[in-house]
Amino acid sequence: MEKTLDPAISVPAAAPRASREQFRASDDKVMLRLARDLTKDIADANPSIYWPDMLLSAGIGYAAMAGAILVSSVPMAIALGLISALALYRALMFIHELTHIHRNALPGFRLAWNVLVGIPMLVPSYMYEGVHTIHHKRTQYGTIEDPEYLPLALMKPWSLPLFVLVALLAPVAFLLRCAILLPLGAAIPPIRRLTWERFSALSINPDFRRRPPEGEMKGRVFWQEFGGFVWSWALIGSVFAFGWRPLLIALAIVSFTAVLNQLRTLVAHLWENEGEPMTVTAQFLDSVNVPPPGFAAELWAPVGLRYHALHHLMPSMPYHALPEAHRRLKGELGNASTYDGANHPGMLHLVGRIARSTMAVR
After folding, report:
1. Alpha carbon of 37 to those of 3, 6, 33, 192, 233: distances in Å?
2. In Å, what is the CA distance from 344 to each residue of 106, 163, 221?
3. How far is Cα 333 from Cα 339, in angstroms, rounded to an integer?
4. How far apart, in whole angstroms, are the C-alpha atoms of residue 152 and residue 274?
5. Which residues cross the membrane (predicted)?
6. Which residues make Cβ contacts (< 8 Å) with residue 193, sequence separation at least 6?
7. Cα within 13 Å of Cα(38), Cβ side
8. Which 8-state DSSP code applies to residue 307?
């Protein structure tokens, strides 16, 4: 259904392109109001989209991984490994949706995702749930309390390649965490506390310390950790049954997904905040949309993550509704609006912008 602008709201037709600094103290109330009013009819999660997308992505990913392990041709193994990595990356990114959708919106989806994707990839949903929502709190975004923020644009140039390359070690780190640290922590409380505070969250802020789980999260953590422990030792045991090749290929594929996700994280924000609280509009402009045209962003920022800035305006908006929400807001507010200030052409442009910023650091 086509939406029209409320005649009571006036939008400047040719305002200068907005900057984040303009909105440190106040918000663009017109944009915030439109984001709410123009998208009310598309705000519900659609099970007929979520379930097939997640299941098909996981199925293709595992089938291609099996093919990469079984084929003897190296070029074919590489091609199948790439397909597997991209498909499993898409399936894995549904962890982001699990943190935002209403608990009753998709019955059984969290359990199915953890059994099919989260635990096999050794990244169960509790590693994001209760953590990512802090990143969306107005008073904590971009501060030292934000687990998902580092002022990368204000750091030394060498920090960017290090930030990306460290992700290569993620699969081995997850395997050691589930196989070694979890059982040790069950017997030794200080190790349990350290593992929970420092290694139980998908965070990038080294100063972040996670608080103990509460309420129903305690039960989720227990069964997801138990599943990760069992699966990690099944993977280790597979070496004795099938040799090193299957496990090493699987780890290589997951390493590629981890690096791809780290690259996406690198360009999800402009990373220009120095730790002070920001308005919603300033947070929006520090975040990134990479809208169409172009298909590449759908590969490296799947499941709605190419609209990351828009997601910060409407965190509970389901991923499948974000393209339409973007179209409506862009159509109403135009090319010279605050909204357009968060729209960027692609990954290379963003990496270049952040890299240039780091080179100016003394």
Report:
1. 9, 9, 6, 46, 50
2. 32, 22, 38
3. 7
4. 10
5. 60-89, 109-128, 162-188, 221-241
6. 185
7. 27
8. B
Give 110-168 pLDDT, tens digit per residue.
999 999 999 999 999 999 998 999 999 988 999 999 999 999 999 999 999 999 999 99
* Enclosing domain of residue 270: 19-362
* Encoded tokens for 29: 């109330």
**Euclidean distance between the first and the last CA atom of the chain, given in angstroms as a whole number:** 52
DSSP 7-34: TT----TTPPPP-GGGGSSS--HHHHHH
Cα–Cα distance measured from residue 267 to residue 164, given in angstroms and rounded to the nearest whole number:
11
Question: Does residue 3 lie within any of the structural domains?
Answer: no
Instruction: Indicate if the pLDDT at residue 8 is higher than 50.
Output: no
What is the per-residue DSSP string for 130-148?
A: TTHHHHT-TTTTTSTT-TT
The angle subtended at Cα 345 by Cα 46 and Cα 279, nearest 5°, is 70
Predicted TM-score (pTM) of the model is 0.91
Q: Is residue 312, in this structure, part of any structural domain at all? A: yes
Q: Can you give the pLDDT at residue 121?
A: 97
State how far Cα 105 lies from the chain centre.
Answer: 20
Q: What are phi and psi of 287, to 5 degrees?
A: -105, 175
Q: State the residue for tokens 């919603």.
A: 280
Per residue in 318-342, pLDDT tens? 999 999 999 999 999 988 899 999 9
Do the domain assignments include residue 6? no
Report which residue type is found at 237: G
Cα separation of 143 and 222, whole Å? 30
Q: What is the pLDDT of residue 275?
A: 85
Could you tell me the two tokens for 264?
């996406």
Structural domain tally of the chain? 1
Residue in the structure block whose two tokens are 């990595």 = 85
Q: Quick check: is 12 in a domain? A: no
Task: Report the distance separating Cα 186 and Cα 104, nearest Å.
Answer: 32
Q: What is the pLDDT of residues 209-230, one digit of tens each?
A: 999 998 889 999 999 999 999 9
Q: Tell me: pLDDT of 360 over 90.
A: no
